[in-house]
Amino acid sequence: MDLCHVPATREKGWYLALMAPNVKGPNYAWLDPSRLYCHPQGLQDCVADLLQPFQGDPIDMVAGIDAMGFILGAAAAAVLRKGFLAIRKAGHLCVQTLAQPYTDYSGREKVMEVRTDAVSPGLRILLVDQWVETGGTMRAAIQLVERLGGVVAGVAAICIEDSEGGRWIRERYKCAHCVPPGLQPRFDRHQ
Predict the structure, then answer these.
(1) Which domains are delineated in the chain?
(2) Which of 88, 78, 153 is nearest to 123 (CA)?
(3) DSSP H/E element including 171
(4) How many whole angstroms separate alpha carbon 112 and alpha carbon 102?
(5) Whole-prediction pTM
(6) Which residue, 32, 28, 22, 170, is CA-closest to 104?
(7) Helices and strands, counts by H and E, the chain
(8) What is the CA radius of gyration of the chain?
(9) H/E element, 129
(10) What is the per-residue pLDDT across 14-68, written as a single tens digit (0 to 9) for each?
């Protein structure tokens, strides 16, 4: 798809066709959304679709998860006119932090951290990431926010897969993602 082309009718998820499949092998994610971010209307519509379920909800801050969640999270924060909090992989913040170990989608053990002075008790935070595959990374971010007394106002990602972790998140938090129901099984099977 041309990076300047905008379809005459823009249904939810039209921009998913901008994503590119993995050509590098099993150590990489199966689909790359970065091309979607290069398309001005695609990015705007993606962010609008992610925020639509939260219209009217009290949100005090948006948090993006390292690293690709920074793109959508910062864009969502700008649209909402809220602050943006980066939830980082361990070792990148030079201030007081709270750490949370987790297992990522590839099965690797990692640690995520957040600065302790950014989340106050009762602060309502919308958590944003590019993708929720197994749910481990998002669950660690949820735990960090809640351990600091924050409230998870919602979870937003281009896709929240129907995995055990994805279901755990959907059962407990208000969620938004961009994949139309008819396409969800294909995304869950990584097709």
Answers:
(1) 14-188 (3.40.50.2020)
(2) 153
(3) helix 164-172
(4) 7
(5) 0.94
(6) 28
(7) 6, 9
(8) 16
(9) strand 124-132
(10) 999 999 888 888 777 888 999 999 999 999 999 999 999 999 999 999 999 999 9
